[in-house]
Amino acid sequence: MIIITRPDISDAELDHIRERVESAGLHTHLSRGEHRTIIGCIGDEARLAEIPLRSLPGVESVVPVLKPYKRASREFSVDRTVVAIGDRARIGGNAITVIAGPCSVENREMLLETAMAVRGAGATILRGGAFKPRSSPYSFQGLGREALRLLAEVRHASGLPVVTEVLDTRDVDLVAEHADMLQVGARNMQNFALLAELGRVQRPILLKRGLSATITELLMAHGNTDVVLCERGIRTFERATRNTLDVSAIPVLKRETHLPVIVDPSHAGGDAELVAPLAFAGIAAGADGLIIEVHPEPESALSDGDQSLAPPAFVALMARLGAFAAAAGRTMAAPVRDAELAGTAA
Amino acid sequence: MIIITRPDISDAELDHIRERVESAGLHTHLSRGEHRTIIGCIGDEARLAEIPLRSLPGVESVVPVLKPYKRASREFSVDRTVVAIGDRARIGGNAITVIAGPCSVENREMLLETAMAVRGAGATILRGGAFKPRSSPYSFQGLGREALRLLAEVRHASGLPVVTEVLDTRDVDLVAEHADMLQVGARNMQNFALLAELGRVQRPILLKRGLSATITELLMAHGNTDVVLCERGIRTFERATRNTLDVSAIPVLKRETHLPVIVDPSHAGGDAELVAPLAFAGIAAGADGLIIEVHPEPESALSDGDQSLAPPAFVALMARLGAFAAAAGRTMAAPVRDAELAGTAA
Amino acid sequence: MIIITRPDISDAELDHIRERVESAGLHTHLSRGEHRTIIGCIGDEARLAEIPLRSLPGVESVVPVLKPYKRASREFSVDRTVVAIGDRARIGGNAITVIAGPCSVENREMLLETAMAVRGAGATILRGGAFKPRSSPYSFQGLGREALRLLAEVRHASGLPVVTEVLDTRDVDLVAEHADMLQVGARNMQNFALLAELGRVQRPILLKRGLSATITELLMAHGNTDVVLCERGIRTFERATRNTLDVSAIPVLKRETHLPVIVDPSHAGGDAELVAPLAFAGIAAGADGLIIEVHPEPESALSDGDQSLAPPAFVALMARLGAFAAAAGRTMAAPVRDAELAGTAA
Amino acid sequence: MIIITRPDISDAELDHIRERVESAGLHTHLSRGEHRTIIGCIGDEARLAEIPLRSLPGVESVVPVLKPYKRASREFSVDRTVVAIGDRARIGGNAITVIAGPCSVENREMLLETAMAVRGAGATILRGGAFKPRSSPYSFQGLGREALRLLAEVRHASGLPVVTEVLDTRDVDLVAEHADMLQVGARNMQNFALLAELGRVQRPILLKRGLSATITELLMAHGNTDVVLCERGIRTFERATRNTLDVSAIPVLKRETHLPVIVDPSHAGGDAELVAPLAFAGIAAGADGLIIEVHPEPESALSDGDQSLAPPAFVALMARLGAFAAAAGRTMAAPVRDAELAGTAA
Q: Would you give the distance in Å from CA A104 to the centre of its chain?
């Protein structure tokens, strides 16, 4: 931590600042310039986090030296983390992983049909909402417990591991029983009560960036190592798209963290026509995977129909994705083979 | 709802759109212009909310005619709502109400000292955090249950009703037992699981605007009538202040809703020096009250010390506030009198 | 300037960074922490501005110690600047100054009628657009030279000094002949070719904050001392209002600079109903004045009719403004008296 | 245009609105719903642009039906425009065009060296700043006229057509004499005085999106057909990168306009390390080209050194770009061949 003092600081104020810092167990180091005196604080910066340094008389500003995120930092882990999702899929490493499925689980037929379609096209993880966060309390909130049962059933039938969102601390155990990966949605990125509950269950987490969360806040948000980060668009002044995909966040995150980073082109653009170009851009920028909404009949979807792809559009996207993955020096994650599936079913 | 179609729409596409709308129980009404055909949808717009109209072939854009918020709308209630907080305070009506107290409840002494100081200066409601939402999981998370007990004790001693935040659905009953008003923080503005739980208990709600929530989203967020809305700054590109107080939201909200609107100048600016000017600006723009962080010794505060006022600064602010209230044609809410307090204690 | 280095920096890289800084005439000062080495750069920071320090190997980040704005800084001038506009008006000091008039000068009658109306209500400076910056090239661009002639004529008739915008370097001399104060619009805040031309003519400048300019950029934008800064709303995600009035910018600017600061509530809200509450909020937050659009018949205005006040609404606003000024410990600027006017005309 | 009226509108108000619309030569068409009456305005919407409809009594909101941009719209031109830059380069069509060169022209040697390096790597147009827009008046402003002379000289030597920015209406003719394409920078996107001057000279324009300009505003900004649009990042709350590349703008622009669209990954990220991933993302999203800053020795650059690539890094980027272009179904623009060059020199 570096403390920049005001030009008119008194010696007593300077001493008081140093005492506060030193009482937290750090050393201080003065550097007097022509206009300002700078106080370098040497030691464990985290101990200063709770001291309101800016409120001390004579302080003009405070500059952290170390990154405030620890476990997500590349200094914490030199090797990039590969997160296993069930025993048939992974996110991270050299292969590009695609998660696909409906926004909401509406019934058994549509879920199974979608699962088989996305698996056929190369997706290796199934998504499907049981509990839905909505922008209006009047909207469809998901089938809940019944949807979890259907997800487990279709997981078995398709061999695809399943990711679904958990919204409420009371549902964590229930959801963890039925899903291979638990999603923390954009609105809950800093819901530490929920994140703490998730820390108890042994499931990897898909952590979506908050609508107005900085990259630093995303990196600070979790304490787990089995986390996949997801860029899904931020809110800006531009309204031609639902959100603004912050494609630059991908290379920045890949530089800062050892965790895998995927992109959600469905929510970012909010428009089915934009899913493919945003998916390609995400992979070109270095993402490790995608999460895409697919619905057998988007215009009848109970939620997010405007941004869902029908299976043929998803197949077309996947057919083109390999070339972008190859251009990025990546492969596509190997699909689940029926043989494997039969093996586990036996 | 008005549907604007693409210039090249076919008759079959037009018919299909009309069928979808009419199958939801509305009537349609065509208006053919030189370049576009417009479809007016007459009837209950809410029934269209779940149909992904933009995904229908031939649709260019969809324009809602009615406000998407119902219960908050001034059309729902002609009279402005006055919310009672316990039996000694109100928010709404002609008087300006000030809520004040520490960011976090740290111990009995500091809470009581602060309560007496803010009451002496004219605040009529006490705030104090028991469960703290933080931007980092490494930060102080509040004293929890113990803080609730202290709030109840100081409520009795000071005669001030109490507002505190609830973060987790599992804590709603517990918090409702100890507090007169429950705060839903900015990060939970659209946490409908939490809001649904709050609908069960008979307590007024202080609903803070999300960091990147639009005014419309704030108005859509709740289904209760005993709600006080709070503007507390939004996230913008400007970083000279922690957030950007959207002072224009105050007159817009007062025009759109019957609910009371207050301002949080402490979180908006994130800087003790900015609290007074932002408080005055909020009242001048038409707010019904303020919520302000006060700490006996801000530089020792366990949270938000940078933006907390010491009691003398709060007294000075209150001394000047009356003139702004008067300029706005308002009075200051009558303080809790000891006589009243003795009466209830008897 | 403080340079924070990467954890893995080599000695050669460290030496190279120091050489680059010292070659610019500054001294360096090392501070080795547990994880990072910090290089303090002591001397004239401006000399480092052109060196791309972040591109030097081993540099993680660069933190300026001094404010990048010099002439606007309060360290440059201890006393607050009062800017004289012609010989009958001032901005700055204890009095609140109101500038009012039409968005565009449309003809002689409307300009004179508006001038007399706003003068009668207490405005002491007349605004009126001759050259209009528009968001579309298809919109009304202003009467240009003819409008300048009308402004000069009405200035004489009303005794009100005149402010008008200049858009093009080629027009600076012409506009300076006809106006007492030259406005640099939000879109030109960083148009240094235009600002350089304005530096040549002896006229005070009204510098409007750019739509996406930070407070720091506003303070860096000018090299003159006779400048009045104007907060007029920034662009954010919120679209209920045309722009978001950054009311916090007022106290921040008053702390950082000796220059006067005014508010434009007409452009900030883009809505006639919002002008009064935003004007009051601006004064409550500490602004030195206002600039308000007034039109004899807003619904017939050739530009900005939606946000213009009719004279009765402006009179009503001014009638209430004094109480807010008094609450802020300010007076209203003394009006131009006919006696003075006659005196100068004689 | 559709006018949505207030629920309590009177018949007289309704009549008055219709009269105003009809007096502009349009027809009106009423549609009475349960809660609101809607007025459809049929005819030339542009005629309504100057009427402040929102200020008419009884109007709640106004919804345009047609896109406000005309010449840029795909309805204006079914075929995509290909813009010729000098006689050796084009932007648009199936090939990807790369513009590269230094931020500022610093001297003859560095310009020639850079031109030869970028040409060797496959760039077909040279960029170089003569007049520099800066965020501070204290920064290097460019060599001006001397830089134009050097650009012309190196254009001849390298065979690369040249693009350079023009900032001031007084410089338009001068710059047009020396350059093949004139750049309008982000700060001047809505400088209609400058754009009008550019309309006089026969040169294609590179129009950069303003820092806070919407896609719609970008499309409205020009009246010319020989325009190339450039996405270069917008300002958002995220500060990990200088700007936020709005990669979604690329497919949206390609859908809305017939004009070519390129990406500036250097300004978007403001960081040399981000140039390649953002360049690849831009091409993957459908851009027609790139503009990239290259400097022989970035750490000595007089401007933008932090984001400039050294020639080897540019060569590496270009070596990988072809695979992304191919994945997008595109080719790379054919390089200038020495034979052609010799031919013209002869």
A: 19
Q: Does A275 touch chain B (CB under 8 A)?
A: no
Residues in contact with A294: Cβ distance below 8 Å, sequence separation at least 6, in sequence order: A100, A101, A102, A114, A117, A118, A308, A309, A310, A311, A314
Residue C76 has phi, psi (to 5 degrees) of -75, -40
- The alpha carbons of chain D give a radius of gyration, in whole angstroms, of 23
Are residues D41 and D2 in contact, defined by beta-carbon separation less than 8 angstroms? yes
What percentage of chain A has pLDDT greater than the value 90?
Answer: 67
Gap between the Cα atoms of C44 and C1, Å rounded: 9
Interface partners of chain A (CB pairs < 8 Å, 3 or more) are: B, C, D
Q: pLDDT category, D135, cuts 50, 70, 90?
A: low
pLDDT at site A42: 86
pLDDT in tens, D203-244: 999 999 999 999 999 998 876 779 999 999 999 999 999 999
ipTM given for this complex: 0.93
| Terminal-to-terminal C-alpha distance of chain A | 59
Each residue's pLDDT tens digit, C182-239: 999 999 998 888 988 998 898 999 999 999 999 999 998 876 779 999 999 999 999 9
Q: What does the radius of gyration of chain C's CA atoms come to, in whole angstroms?
A: 23
Tens-digit pLDDT profile for residues A242-273: 999 999 999 999 999 999 999 999 999 999 99
Q: State the burial class of residue C291 (Cβ atoms within 10 Å of its Cβ: 0-12, 13-18, 19+).
A: buried
Q: Please tell me the pTM assigned to this model.
A: 0.93
| Per-residue pLDDT at C175 exceeds 60 | yes
Low-confidence ranges of chain B (pLDDT < 70): 134-139, 223, 338-346
Helix, coil or strand: residue A166: coil
CB B31, CB D31: distance < 8 Å: yes
CA distance C61 to C54: 6
Asked if B319 is an interface residue toward chain C (Cβ–Cβ < 8 A), one would say: no
Mean pLDDT of A27-55: 85
Asked if the model's pLDDT at residue A87 lies above 70, the reply is yes
In angstroms, what is the C-alpha Rg of chain A? 23
Within 10 angstroms of residue C137's Cβ, the number of other Cβ atoms is 16
- Calculate the alpha carbon distances from B333 to B81, B99, C281 in Å: 16, 11, 21
Interface test with D, best of A69, A229, A232, A247 (most D CBs within 10 A): A247
Q: DSSP readout, C250-299? A: HHHHHHHBSS-EEE-HHHHH-SHHHHHHHHHHHHHTT-SEEEEEB-SSGG
Question: Which residues in chain B have Cβ-Cβ distances shorter than 8 Å to D135?
Answer: none
For B272-320, what is each residue's pLDDT tens digit?
999 999 999 999 999 999 999 999 999 888 888 899 999 999 999 999 9
Residues in chain C closer than 8 A to D306 (CB atoms): 52, 54-55
Residues in chain C: 346
Both tokens assigned to B54: 């933009």
- Say what the pLDDT of residue D339 is: 58
- The four Cα atoms A291, A292, A294, A299 give a dihedral, to 10 degrees, of 140
**CB contact at 8 A, B112 and B154:** yes
> Mind giving me the DSSP string for C322-345?
HHHHHHTT-EEPPPPPHHHHHHHH
* Cβ-defined contact of B31 to D40 (cutoff 8 Å): yes
Residue spans of beta strands (DSSP E) within chain D: 2-5, 27-32, 37-42, 59-63, 83-85, 89-91, 95-101, 125-127, 162-165, 181-184, 205-208, 227-231, 261-263, 289-293, 331-332
Longest dimension (CA), chain A: 78
Residue C280 to residue B285, Cβ atoms within 8 A:
yes
Q: Which residue of B has its CA nearest to C323?
A: B327
Using the beta-carbon criterion (under 8 Å), do A55 and B308 form an inter-chain contact? yes
- DSSP for residue B266: H
C65 near A CB under 8 A: yes
For chain C, say whether B253 makes contact (Cβ under 8 Å).
no
